[in-house]
Each structure stands twice: as structure tokens, then as C-alpha cells.
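TA notes, week 10

Several of you asked for a full example with nothing omitted. So below is the full record: C-alpha cells for the whole chain, then the designed sequence directly under it. When grading your own attempts, check the secondary structure regions first.
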């Protein structure tokens, strides 16, 4: 569906789902996979924050040339800031002090901001 990497408005959803996958891996004590899922989550969030243009025609096969338009967010935070908040949940405690987790946090912190037009 998104073979071209053009997730449009779904980019933020993809970031959130990757964070949920990290939580699942933590329940299995699979810390390496949890970190990989969080890295993917950060990539989706940053891509959404930096590349999302609601007026740009979609390039993926299913949504070819469709303009999605603006979406209404129920938050004043960008995707990076939302991901940072999710990463503060207690279930991430087992990996919170790892080098990789801290790197993901720092990457997201550098991109976080409040939305201006809320």
C-alpha cells in the first residue's frame, strides 16, 4: 500500500504502532527487537514531522495522485514530541538506560516542538 515510502497522514500512525510493537517485545523480554521497533518509530515520527505535506499528491500505487488534505490533530505536539512522551511510560524501564534508547531520545528531542497552528 505504501511501497514508495509515501505514508502521508499515516506516518504518525506508523510511528505509534511501532512504539506499541516495542512494548510487545518488552513483554517478551526481547530487548533488542524493542530497541529496533523504537528506532523505526523515531524514523516514522521524524519523517512525518519533516516531510508530511497534506497538499502533495500521493505517489504510492493505491493512493496515486490523491491529495489527502489537512488532518485535525488532537494534540499541540508534533510526532517527535508525542513519541518522547510514549517512551516515558513505565514499560520502557528495562531499556531506558541503554545507549540505544538514549540515542533515540536525543534524536527525538532535537526534533520536538509545539504545533503553532493548533
Amino acid at each position: 500500500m505504501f511501497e514508495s515510502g509515501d505514508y502521508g497522514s499515516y506516518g504518525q500512525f506508523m510511528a505509534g504502532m511501532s512504539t506499541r510493537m516495542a512494548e510487545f517485545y518488552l513483554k517478551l523480554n526481547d530487548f533488542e527487537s524493542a530497541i529496533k521497533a523504537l528506532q523505526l518509530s523515531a524514523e516514522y515520527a521524524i519523517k512525518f514531522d519533516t516531510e508530511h505535506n497534506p497538499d502533495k499528491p500521493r505517489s504510492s500505487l493505491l493512493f496515486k495522485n490523491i491529495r489527502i488534505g489537512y488532518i485535525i490533530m488532537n494534540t499541540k505536539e508534533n510526532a517527535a514530541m508525542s513519541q518522547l512522551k510514549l517512551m516515558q511510560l513505565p514499560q520502557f524501564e528495562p531499556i531506558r538506560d541503554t545507549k540505544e534508547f538514549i540515542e533515540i531520545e536525543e534524536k527525538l528531542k532535537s526534533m520536538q516542538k509545539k504545533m503553532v497552528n493548533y
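The chain has four helices and no strands. Use that as a sanity check on your answer.
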